[in-house]
Amino acid sequence: MNTENRYPVTASLFMLREIKQRQEKVTRGYQLLKRKTEALRMRGRQAAVEMSATQAMLGHTLREAYISLAAIKFTNGESNALVLENVGQAQIRVLRTPENISGVATVSLQAVEDLTASDTLQYAGLGAGGHRTSEAKKSFREAVRILVKFASLRNTCLLLDEAIKSTLRKVNGIEKVIMPKLRNTETYILMEMGEQEREEFHRLKMVKAKKNQKKITQSQSRDDADSIFSHALVSDTSNSPCTRFFHTILYQRTDPVLSQSDSAGDGNVICYPHNWDDEDLLF
Questions:
Q1: What phi, psi does 176 have (nearest 5°)?
Q2: If DSSP states are collapsed to H, E and C, what string results for 51-93?
């Protein structure tokens, strides 16, 4: 098996247990990342739908506001210099609210009207076109609120899109790289352990065969020795009285029927043959 597709580990029960624990952790993390991806996608789709509706509303509101501004210019003339000279504190401010969407930190923007700020142009248009001026102020104020909401949704969509891409890279890395490596490593460990078990079984089999062969050899050597001894006893051509006397004693000691009649006997007595002559015996 190619070592690039698995982790370099030693084949043992400890490493097999470690690999299985890693697989469980990786599988749990993979499932969590998949759920996170689905949650981010769902929240991203909701934010995209809201942003699309807000963008359409923003376009309509800005069109109405600029129409009101054009009506004011037609009624009161050019008033840009007067407005720029009397700009004071902002009445509409942006409130930043941090949010956490499935582990992704985002910022929600909300337009808040500051009632403590003084309105320097509250009496603008009293001389002529006051109704048009108030309508233009309301239209632009509403446009600012919608614009802040649109900016918040767009920022959320961008952050969620980056988070989804990052999470998908992690999911693909776990699915295509880490999990196959862990599976290949587990397969390699099981194969090596099986090979070790077969080698150990073969070794024990060879040891047992050697022991059996040794026993057979020993038994064969004993049988050969007994056969040689028996052949020497039977094939003795000496017909001397001493030889016949010792043969008779040997057969009586080894024969169970004859040994039972011998009450003074002490069991099977082995009498080894010899080549004595009759002249050597002194009776």
A1: -95, -20
A2: HHHHHHHHHHHHHHHHHHHHHHHHHHCCCHHHHHHCCCCCCEE
Sign of CA dihedral 11, 15, 20, 24: negative
Contact yes or no for 45/144 (Cβ under 8 A): no
CB 33, CB 139: distance < 8 Å: no
CB 94 within 8 A of CB 101: no
Distance separating alpha carbons of residues 44 and 209, to the nearest angstrom: 73
CA-CA distances (angstroms) from residue 22 to 27, 115, 183? 8, 59, 10
Residue ranges in the chain whose pLDDT is less than 70: 1-4, 76-88, 115-131, 225-226, 228-283
Task: Name the residue type at position 100.
Answer: N
Consecutive H or E run containing 208: helix 179-234
In the structure encoding, which two tokens stand for residue 23, read together? 């697989």
Cα dist from 161 to 43, 166, 167, whole Å? 10, 9, 10
Note the pTM of the prediction, 2 decimals.
0.60
Under a CB-based contact definition with an 8 Å cutoff, are residues 106 and 159 in contact?
yes
Listed residue (187, 144, 257, 150) closest to 9, CA to CA: 187
User: Six-digit token pair at 216?
Assistant: 């057979």
Report how far residue 177's alpha carbon sits from residue 194's, in angstroms, rounded to the nearest whole number: 26
Contacts 24+ apart (CB under 8 A), 217-220: none
Compute φ and ψ for 89, nearest 5 degrees: -80, 150
